Amino acid sequence: MERVIGLDMGYGFIKANDGRDGVRFPSVVGHAGGGGPMSLGFQKPDPTSDLRITVGGKSFFLGDLAIRHSRIAHRGLSATRAEGDDLRILFLGALSMFCRESMNDFQVVTGLPPGRMHLADDLVSQLRGDHTVTRHVGRNRQDLSIRLDQVEVVPQPLGTFWSEVLDSRGQLRGDSNLLRGRVGIIDVGFRTTDFATIVEGEYAPAWSRTVPLGISTGYDTLAASLATQYGLEREPYTLDQAVIDGEVNVSGRRVDITDLRDQILGEVATKLMVELQSLWQLTEYDAVLLTGGGAHVLERYLRPQVPQSVMVSDPVTANARGYMAWGTYQNLDVQPEAQTTSGGGFSTDAANQPASSNYEASRFQPEERASGDFRRE
Questions:
Q1: pTM, full prediction
Q2: How many helices (H) and strands (E) does the chain have?
Q3: Alpha carbon distance 190, 207 (integer Å)
């Protein structure tokens, strides 16, 4: 039987959820030349910190392991993410962590930025089908077969909406007020930020957009400043923890960079508000959801200017959890009204639909589940 996996393939982090477990690791791929590192036995690594796979005869370190041990590691940041085979490698690496048997069938729901939905059919063709992966855990190896008969691609921020209105069993939550009125979603990612609008439970592509501005903009500036002020050469993808802690290590001593970090991130937030105000009349929005890996970083700058905004629960994983809940919802008795492609994904020209389009990413009727369990989990 197929299991539903929600998979958010962000530029910064890969997030995946099956309703029971969740995983997250940096979207970094590195060649596994010379074999894996040798543990000295002092600590047991988290599984996502020791993620090694072999696909097509080539071995790769993923996430934190690539950052620590690959001489050549990178984070693909192009608009199409077409650098080599990285996207598929990250995708299969994430799924390998949910494999319970040697043969595994998954139904995957994933997302693309609203401005990239024209790439949905190509993405489905890359990912759907049968795959063979070898997962390396310590000195052991597991040969895994992964079958993907259903891959659904949706506008990325809708995962956050579904995480707020559906529980992990795909049931509508009775305490949600987001199915009525106009709801905005600001999904702050590593390379891009997505703006999405939901009107009376329907996705509105005319007021949804992807802008090439994310926290990597701040990371690039921060990396340049660290090089100038401290002679510290750091790749932007290694700065996640420094931004969180407000500190960097320089010649064995901790240096406080909170003032520098706050100045740079404040400038990023200002640019983001300019983009937002050119698209939305904020006074028309009943609620605005802040989500994505950059939401925690920029919340303090955005909320004073968007008073109806609220940070969603665990914004880093909200899209992945929502994708999983949406996949489960579709497998229940009541089917949502949605226009789909033959591959199971939403209409790929949605981002260019006019305001009068009948394209609907989701439309929920709460009364259809009146007998359901509406407790928030």
A1: 0.81
A2: 9, 18
A3: 22
